[in-house]
Hints:
globular
Amino acid sequence: QVLDCLYKNLQAEFLIKGAEANQNFILKCGSKTAPVRYLNGCVYFIKKDGMFAFSIKPKNAEQAFAMEALLNPEIQLVTIQGSAGTGKTLLSLASAFEQIKTKKNIEKNPDRPTGFYKKIYYSRKIVSVGDKDLGFLPGDAKNKVDPYMGGMNDNIECLKDVSARNSEAIDKAILNEVFKVEILNYIRGRSINNVIFIIDEAQNLTSHDIKTIISRAGEGTKIILIGDIHQIDLKNLDKWSNGLSHTIVKIRNHKRCAHIRLVKGERSELADMANLL
């Protein structure tokens, strides 16, 4: 009966004992299944078929859960934990570009009062693999940061390769500084409004670092923290004490927050093998 109601109305009253706000489940009854998000005694149907962001479609149920949270304007803080190749950065960037405030977006969604953003900020803590110091890097701030942004650039190229329209939109966003790489060292004192702020490799941040970042969020800003707690490059942090884990524990059961754990690797079979090492 609950599944029939979900299929028809996309939501249904259904109390799940012990469930937290914005926790995801797959409900099953016989041969019927329904991926859902739980909130305040109701479940909301997540339609994986037909879901997309910037022409990227979720490849599994966990990715669908992540994309729904990333695209939901009512959820202002999203944390995504997953091993290499599960799609954390690609889904985050695709969802961010999908929600950039453009005339076309507004015309397409006239009834959506919130959830469109003026800019995308992307950042990560500048840490080398194994916490090795590379020494002095020449050039301005951008030149110093660029060597650490290879992962982001790979995902941007992946989005560009999907279609000529994507490529044109991304190039325009970069040219007009709608999409910017931010340096976390200079974040203190800022007030960031109407921005989607993606912080990659958040497992290399301390709880104090993340508190500082989130406290910069002004009106209309959404923060996305992504990382893998099993790939920490700082000796003073572990999988329990790092800022990503700390935030996941602290925000649980808040209606404006959601946490998703991605399990299935989608990059390649070889990348999946790395998780066995």
